[in-house]
């Protein structure tokens, strides 16, 4: 099995869970599937007293592919290929999917989606018949292409919880309660995880519920939390169990305060596109890892932390709200639609920017001006260490 991405992994990994236990790569696969907009065949969240699911192959309905995989004018062929590979795979063929929840609310600035995967019938997932247990994976969707989704991400830097975090906890508690009721066929163990914001929701859910049924916690390049959260007893109680993976030039996964241990994954692209899990390298069924983040990632992490600390939560919230209102004034709900109609959108956006009051304009300009100054300071602080290493070598 050569080097490739997660689609290549699913296509070529013939070992069952008996020979290769469930791991971080499998978690990333399920986290990526959570981005699919599930067709009507998938049972909705809370539609039954027990956990309602259907076989994964039920999603292979070509007439629904445009709604499942389209973002604006773009068709996501990679996620389509991943779904087909999972349905064909001897490793994942027994996978079931259900409890689909999707909530979007511009007024409350909420973008939330989750789905539950049942791995119980996957070959090799059960050690033996006498110790059979229901194995679920609750996957939280990351940020989508909507303006509201990105606005909620920025809100995380100034308040906790945001609506999607509260809804993630509500979702998990319902799944846990129904899966572990006295009439369930087997005891339950539940892994929680997600990519990007989905990883943040998984960690937050584990922290708030402290559930004994949560067996593993995965965050794939998920952002962190405000410092007040990571200093709490609840966070410290679950932090050692968080399995976090980030790309070598991570930006999103290093935002705010995060877990102290994480695995760094090699990618086949550069820049912000490293955030996309489909670009992470996998070889022989495992992530190809790197010993440390790139210097650029470390510099940006330090710069962003120092930059954000210069302004109060209220100032940051004001700037975020105003910038969002300016962009949203164009009337296009997603970045994909905005890009498709940029010619018509720009005049409206420019007009909205001109109408911003002077105090807010000054605040936004001060925040923007502070970034290059902070970056220069961070770079200067990095140099002495680099110079010292060079001198030692000489």
TrEMBL record:
Question: What name does UniProt use for this protein?
Answer: DUF2974 domain-containing protein
């Amino acid at each position: 099995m050569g080097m490739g991405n997660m689609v290549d992994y699913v296509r070529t990994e013939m070992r069952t869970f008996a020979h290769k236990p469930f791991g971080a790569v499998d978690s990333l696969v399920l986290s990526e599937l959570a981005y699919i907009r599930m067709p009507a065949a998938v049972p909705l969240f809370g539609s039954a007293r027990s956990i309602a699911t259907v076989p994964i192959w039920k999603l292979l309905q070509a007439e629904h592919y445009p709604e499942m995989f389209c973002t604006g004018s773009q068709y996501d062929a990679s996620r389509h290929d991943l779904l087909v590979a999972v349905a064909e795979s001897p490793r994942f063929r027994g996978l079931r999917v259900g409890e689909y929840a999707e909530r979007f609310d511009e007024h409350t600035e909420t973008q939330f989606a989750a789905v539950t995967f049942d791995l119980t019938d996957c070959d090799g997932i059960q050690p033996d018949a006498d110790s059979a247990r229901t194995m679920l994976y609750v996957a939280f969707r990351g940020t989508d292409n909507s303006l509201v989704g990105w606005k909620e991400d920025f809100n995380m830097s100034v308040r906790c919880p945001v609506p999607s975090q509260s809804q993630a906890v509500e979702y998990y508690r319902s799944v846990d309660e129904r899966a572990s009721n006295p009439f369930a066929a087997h005891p339950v163990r539940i892994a929680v995880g997600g990519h990007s914001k989905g990883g943040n929701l998984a960690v937050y859910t584990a922290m708030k519920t402290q559930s004994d049924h949560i067996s593993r916690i995965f965050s794939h390049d998920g952002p962190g939390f405000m410092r007040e959260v990571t200093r709490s007893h609840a966070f410290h109680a679950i932090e050692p169990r968080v399995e976090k993976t980030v790309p070598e030039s991570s930006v999103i996964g290093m935002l705010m305060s995060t877990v102290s241990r994480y695995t760094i994954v090699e990618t086949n692209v550069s820049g912000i596109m490293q955030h996309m899990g489909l670009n992470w390298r996998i070889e022989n069924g495992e992530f190809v890892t790197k010993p440390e983040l790139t210097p650029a990632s470390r510099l940006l992490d330090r710069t962003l932390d120092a930059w954000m600390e210069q302004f109060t939560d209220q100032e940051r919230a004001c700037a975020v709200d105003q910038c969002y209102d300016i962009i949203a004034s164009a009337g296009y709900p997603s970045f994909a639609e905005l890009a498709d109609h940029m010619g018509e959108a720009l005049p409206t956006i420019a007009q909205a920017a001109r109408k911003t009051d002077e105090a807010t304009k000054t605040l936004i300009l001060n925040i923007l001006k502070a970034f290059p100054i902070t970056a220069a300071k961070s770079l200067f602080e990095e140099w002495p260490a680099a110079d010292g290493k060079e001198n030692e070598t000489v």
